[in-house]
Design a protein that fits this description.
Elements (H helix, E strand, L loop, with lengths): L1 H31 L58 E4 L10 H9 L5 E4 L8 H19 L4 E6 L1 H12 L6 E7 L16 H4 L6 H6 L9 E7 L19 E7 L11 H12 L11 E3 L1
Parallel strand pairs: 1-2, 1-3, 3-4, 4-5, 5-6, 6-7
Helix pairs in contact: 2-7, 3-4
Length: 297
């Protein structure tokens, strides 16, 4: 009998720790939120554009033909960071519902530290009422990035609703021609049973199971070229049930990565998740496996 109570006790303790972390993340993000209200500024169009971007990519932008940086020798007692990878496509970060680009401050820093030098975020209005409209905006944004940088492809990391918007763009608007890898963090791919008050917003209703956009994402998608990596948390209190954050589609090259001990808000800021995102963005197509092939945290 005592042994039967152990899993429940451990789960309760993990949930308590995750909830405490969620509150800390919420407090920190509340302070940072004003810094992400305005959109990013970008350099003039053209593949040769470089240098630091005000409020944009940390470390500047690099085109496909940029020089390869030589590895540097780290001081004694430190770990050398990897050299720059100019062939890496730009990474577009897409936030969740009633949020903005400030949610990705720590993830951007992690990616920049490990050699990603072209990082961009898209703010969509909290008044946006339709996933399809937001996906069309993402389409225009990515076309502008490709025209400005000279890259033909981008990678996307989307948190919560942001991942759903990006997936709709890829599957339903032909975005697979532009998106190499789509990483989603706590995204309700199968819909979520949201609180009644939150469902008053039209775009939240579209995140319910059975909504028109969710059902459209269940339709066949033969030949989709984008790779999908979905991070889902067993302690996510926003995605109900938690398995709804997994991608289950026969036509998609998708991996579902289980995250332990991390709630919904902490997914974009947790260092173990950041490490998993870096690995997902760098993984070749042949490295992708079946669902639940890996776990982090």
């Amino acid at each position: 009998m005592p042994s039967a109570r152990v899993p429940s006790t451990r789960l309760s303790a993990a949930l308590l720790r995750a909830t405490a972390l969620e509150l800390v993340v919420l407090a920190g993000h509340t302070l940072l939120y004003p810094t992400g209200i305005t959109g990013e500024r970008h350099p003039a169009a053209g593949p040769a554009a470089g240098g630091a971007e005000g409020g944009g990519a940390e470390g500047g932008a690099s085109g496909r033909t940029g020089p390869v940086s030589s590895p540097t020798t780290a001081p004694a007692g430190t770990t050398a960071l990897p050299a720059a990878h100019p062939e890496r496509p730009p990474v577009v970060l897409l936030h969740g519902f009633i949020d903005n680009r400030s949610v990705f401050v720590l993830l951007r820093r992690s990616l920049a530290r490990y050699g990603w030098h072209h990082l961009e975020s898209l703010n969509y209005s909290p008044l946006t009422c339709d996933i399809r409209t937001a996906a069309e905006l993402l389409d225009r944004h990515i076309e502008e990035i490709c025209a400005r940088t000279g890259h033909r492809e981008v990678d996307i990391v989307g948190h919560s609703l942001g991942g759903l918007i990006a997936r709709y763009y890829v599957q339903r608007l032909g975005g697979d021609r532009r998106v190499r890898t789509l990483v989603t963090l706590g995204t309700p791919h199968g819909g979520t049973a949201v609180a009644p008050l939150a469902a008053a917003h039209p775009i939240v209703r579209q995140m319910r199971s059975g909504s028109v956009p969710i059902e459209e994402l269940r339709l066949p998608a033969p030949g989709c070229r984008t790779r999908f990596v979905s991070f889902w948390s067993e302690l996510d209190q926003v995605i109900v049930p938690v398995e709804a954050a997994c991608i289950d589609h026969p036509d998609l090259d998708a991996v579902n990565v289980r995250v332990s001990g991390v709630g919904h808000l902490a997914l974009p800021v947790h260092p173990a998740v950041a490490a998993g995102v870096r690995q997902a963005l760098d993984a070749p197509a042949s490295a992708q496996g079946s669902a639940d092939a890996a776990s982090v945290a």
